[in-house]
Amino acid sequence: PILILGACGQIGTELTIELRAKYGSENVVASDIREGSESLMASGPFELLDATNYEAIEDVVMHYEIDEVYLMAAMLSATAEKFPMRAWNLNMNSLFNVLNLAKDRKINKIFWPSSIAVFGPNTPKEHTPQNTIMEPSTVYGISKQSGERWCEYYFNKFGVDVRSVRYPGLISWKTMPGGGTTDYAVEIYHEALKKGTYSCFLNESTKLPMMYMDDAIRATIGLMESDPEKLSVRSSYNLGSMSFAPKEITQSIQKHIPGFKVTYAPDFRQEIADSWPSSIDDTTAKKDWNWKPAFDLDSTTGEMLDNLKKTS
Ligand code: VAH
């Protein structure tokens, strides 16, 4: 059976749905610090769990005979700048909990998300390589860089089968993101439909690597199902699909909503975004486990607007 920590978050919600569809609801235990949507709570086993509490996780792992853990609980980049020590505690101690469960052979496979936030201001910005300078300047990025080092260490020293991808900004409609710098790319669709206008907290030319959630979920499960012999990276894989700036996503929306207007009011998140790459080289993921994205900006916009209209 599988345990998802942080199952009520932006990625966790969709991973829970997909993994339950694939492996059967009873084989996927969802957990979070608070309860989730009615549909999530009704669709299979759920446990209230604090991902920083080792004994609580261990109890759930033993009770359900869990063998795989997806650790999706974290504090994201914008919020982490406001609460550095809480972010470090959550992001790192939750990882140590699952790595140590695997080291003690209580579970035998882990997925842990890294992020383009591991890169910093002096990292090459275009086609950022798998191996390059990484001096992250955000609390969240520091926690992700450190987490990658620990994952690789536990793989090399203790044979822990931990797998990871560096997610770009993720765009989805089922669950709002919480406290990220790329959240503008989700909010903008909601506001375009609700108000026809949006005030963007990044400037119009801030180009960032982005991905539609369906691609991100497929990549995550695809990596977890890959032959371990083929995996040459045990820190975290670069993962790419598209890159765009607020002005491009605005133009994409205007093809459906011609009168849509965006104003720009950069806030503290501009500095975070400026420290990140503009595009990612994911050759290694393509080579090791046949990664291939399916959504570009216009197909993402079509999916987002269609689904938000249906569910609003
Ligand atoms: C954030 N959505 O903005 C997350 C992600 C690459 C960005 O890590 O913090």
TrEMBL record:
Source domain of life: Bacteria
* Pfam families according to UniProt: Epimerase (PF01370)
Q: Name one GO molecular function term.
A: L-threonine 3-dehydrogenase activity
**GO biological process: any one?**
L-threonine catabolic process
NAD-dependent epimerase/dehydratase domain mapped to chain residues: 2-240
Report the SUPFAM superfamilies cross-referenced here: NAD(P)-binding Rossmann-fold domains
Q: Do you know which InterPro entries this protein is assigned to?
A: Epimerase_deHydtase, NAD(P)-bd_dom_sf, NAD(P)_epim/dehydratase
The record's similarity note reads: Belongs to the NAD(P)-dependent epimerase/dehydratase family.
Q: Which PANTHER family match?
A: L-THREONINE 3-DEHYDROGENASE, L-THREONINE 3-DEHYDROGENASE, MITOCHONDRIAL
What protein does this entry describe? NAD-dependent epimerase
Q: What species is this protein from? A: Flagellimonas aquimarina
The organism's taxonomy opens as: Bacteria, Pseudomonadati, Bacteroidota, Flavobacteriia, Flavobacteriales
